[in-house]
Amino acid sequence: MSTENARTRYVVIGTGGRCTMYITALCTTHADAGELVALADINPGRLEYYVNQAKTDYDVDVDTFDPAALTEYIQTKNIDRVIITTPDFTHADYIVESLKAGADVVVEKPLTVNAESSARIAETVKETGKEVVVTFNYRYSPRNTALKAAIQEGKIGEVTSIDFSWVLDTVHGADYFRRWHRQKENSGGLLIHKASHHFDLVNWWLADAPERIYASGGLKFYGAENAAKRGITPHLRGTRDDAEKDPFALDMRTDEKIKKLYLDNEHHDGYLRDQDVFGPGITMEDNLAIIADYSRGAVLNYSLNAHAPWEGYQVAVNGTEGRLELEVVERAAVQPLTTGGVPVDPSITDDARSNQVRAKGERLVLQRHWQEAEEIEIVEGEGSHGGGDKLLLDDIFYGPGNDPYKRPAGLVDGIHAIAVGICGNKSLISRGPVEVKNVDLGLSAAAEAAE
Ligand SMILES: NC(=O)c1ccc[n+]([C@@H]2O[C@H](COP(=O)([O-])OP(=O)(O)OC[C@H]3O[C@@H](n4cnc5c(N)ncnc54)[C@H](O)[C@@H]3O)[C@@H](O)[C@H]2O)c1
User: Fold this and answer.
1) What pLDDT, in 10s, does the model give residues 381-438?
2) The CATH number fitting domain 138-221+282-443, selected from 3.30.360.10, 1.10.3720.10, 1.20.1250.20, 3.40.630.30
3) Which one, 87, 239, 257, 429, has the greatest CB density within 10 A?
4) Tell me, which fold does domain 8-136+444-450 have in CATH?
């Protein structure tokens, strides 16, 4: 953390999409807390994009280094904290190396993608006494905090069960099937890559930990085999050069940032940001269901769909004194992206498309036994994500304050969030329930380190 005399010295590894929030914060709103010393990435083009942006937009000079020389860079440049925004399967090695080299770590969710690397991270934290912060931004969203507050204040008594359904649409959901995520060893599949956000919310809402997991699901919509079964042949869709024909295609030429970051830099590493969602090689599921038993007795019934016509989520929390329901519509309907390279109707925004059947918005309802339902106000703050991003960044860069909702997440939280997905993935193979205690995730080392 920063002191009055010296700012904490940061490096960021992984200069793709997600690093923007951290780089911007360190160059602007949180520059008093930390100095952005350097960036690293295996792709020199993306690295250069952010170095130029720091200079042009914020007048900040940023150094670069080869990620293979991380230890040397940390030690010779006295780096205090490493922010890791690389693909999920690379997190563990960078975390362990950073800690051993003497730096603390801030890592994007998910902490990592399997049990072995989770245990390795926990052992290293115990050995080195260094810190790992996992950034769970969903906790900071005002609606999710409002639900936490209502449960914590005992408005529905003791929680007995949760129904949680998350739908990703054919814009956002499809995107995971175009990139590195599509191979399960890279992302842990959506149960880890995406749903670790959701399981973290449940763990945090309940202030409890999962004990036993049963999962079911599969790849039922995307992928070459499913497309062939439905008669969707490649010639019916656009190619990369006429992507505007295909509503499932990402036309990287039409988005300046995506073009500069990914399309223009493919020649360095062959990273294709716009792979065909109906092409071969996808090894992760797009429809998933989980039943999880929690240690104090609550049961979670969860589902994830990645090809819905709208995007959002519904949570119902049952308690001994009533029920809370949170309904969120993030996008009411997906508009075909383009026709002939131009938006179908540029005047139709997501908001304007909302109709009376499904409208973009959110609603938190409390109904206690024997009483009428009442709506709980969701209080938004200033800035992006209802003010949630600022609170998250404050906790990361200034250190956790005295938060009544305990939003800052440490290593134990990071492990509990992936525990459901890791055990869920085992359950998908064994087709039976998996006890969390039978999988070595490093939870006891992490708990010891936290004492
Ligand atoms: N909290 C959230 O809501 C949220 C949102 C998006 C992404 N994320 C997380 O952020 C991380 C990055 O996701 P993204 O969408 O920015 O991905 P991305 O593909 O856009 O960027 C990843 C970057 O890492 C680089 N890279 C790949 N392998 C590397 C290696 N071995 N060493 C160094 N650099 C390497 C790539 O060249 C690329 O520039 C992921 O862990 C993802 O789960 C979190």
Assistant:
1) 888 888 888 999 999 999 998 899 999 999 999 999 999 999 999 999 999 999 999 9
2) 3.30.360.10
3) 87
4) Rossmann fold (3.40.50)
